[in-house]
Amino acid sequence: MASTKTSLLDLPVELFHAVLVECIRVRIPKRALRLRLVNRLFASEVIRVIHEYHILEDNILRVRQLGSVGAEYLSRRLLRTKLPIAPQWANIRCIATRLAQEDDEAVREERYAAYVQLLCGELARRCDFSMSSICMRAELADRYDERNCGKYFREHDLLTAAAYTNKIAVIEEVINDPDYPGIRVGYEGSFGNPFDMAASRGHHAVLDLLYRTQGEFAGDNNLLAAVVFRRLSLDIEIAKRFLPTRWTKKYLEGNEGLNMLNLERALRTPSVEIFQMVMQVKESTAYPTFTEQGLNNLLGFAARHGWLEMVQYLLSIGAPVDVLSLRGVFLKGHMDIAQLLLDHGAEFTAKEMGYAAEKGRWEMVRWLAAQGVDLNVADPSPLISALLFERADVARELVALGATADAEFGRMAKIKAENDGLDSMVVLAEELSLEFQEGIVEFFRAALSLDGTKSAEAALSLDETKSAESPPSALA
């Protein structure tokens, strides 16, 4: 009688949870978070278990490196526990409470939770402290800098959050306080500056109020436009407000070039229309054009951020393609931009393939292999990266595409997998090396070249759903 296989999902809910908890607790956080890729149920349960068992409290990575995982972990800590948390983060509760007071009582509790999550997301993008110090672990709490937790700090953060959420009454409350000194030039606080946050959400009335009462800050801060113009989908009328009238020819050519440098930073924008608007200002100065290097720097910045329209425009006005400055395209997995650069003469190498593999961008690795890039030059090789990501399917596919799994590979892969505690990958590395040396892999390679049309996935009967990109997190 044939035995039937039992899936983990077939278990009773209580037993499933118990097994999943143990799986997460015995894995390092990086490997535990990979369980989110199995399916939606695993994704939600992994986050719940990590929070419930405080698994990230000892993590030494900076919060901003943890991406959305770090933000969600800390928002859950604020909403569902009374566990210790750094003052800067604890202040989010106070801010969210004040913002929610402006909403209808019927939805106030729901809006409070939404504000906490929103503000945690903004602070997480900027926070350079480790999760350990934020969670105030006894041995690390003294490392947290509390200088920015005073009255001005709290007022500035409340003002910025109110600008972000369009709470004009709260803004007026802060700026009408006789003790409030006004926005300080260069001070960002937890969530950035109020002008930028209001602009990012298209809050015209908020900007009117800020310019009327705090306009001196906007006029003196020459970097403000550069910050605002990087926003996606920025209202063009709002953008025009951040081109100060003081950006005259004399002003821009002075200060030993620093003012011109700030103007050129404002050209780092995803909007072609805003770019052309700022260029009109630059063209009125003694430095009306860019050098090739200057254009290439702009191209590299736009490519790294995935701004396809701006990349197309910069190429159309003569920006040279320098692959050395476009590493971020492969780290971030911007396939459309990589194809565009290839169409404009870019020649990609094993370095770019290595960047993509290190971040689990397997679709880009396949694409580069199809362009003829050698799978065996990068260090570490894409094959070893696949093992470290615990992607047995991708590893076998790469071997079929031409990756070398010789004895040296087997030795190195075994060392790296053992160092990361990847027992199953140690076994796979040994199997791949043995198969390669015995010539078994030639069967798969022959299948790929039968008529020149079969894909690696077809030859190996791979399920494309298993080849999802890794999540954008330092723990992926």
UniProtKB/TrEMBL annotation:
Q: Known InterPro entries for this protein? A: Ank_Repeat/CDKN_Inhibitor (IPR050776), Ankyrin_rpt-contain_sf (IPR036770)
Establish whether keyword Repeat is in the entry. yes
The domain of life is Eukaryota
Task: Recite the UniProt keywords alphabetically.
Answer: ANK repeat, Repeat
Sorted alphabetically, the Gene Ontology cellular component annotations on this record are: nucleus
For whether the record's keyword set contains Repeat, the answer is yes
What name does UniProt use for this protein?
Ankyrin repeat-containing domain protein
Organism expressing this protein natively = Massariosphaeria phaeospora
- Provide the taxonomic classification: Eukaryota, Fungi, Dikarya, Ascomycota, Pezizomycotina
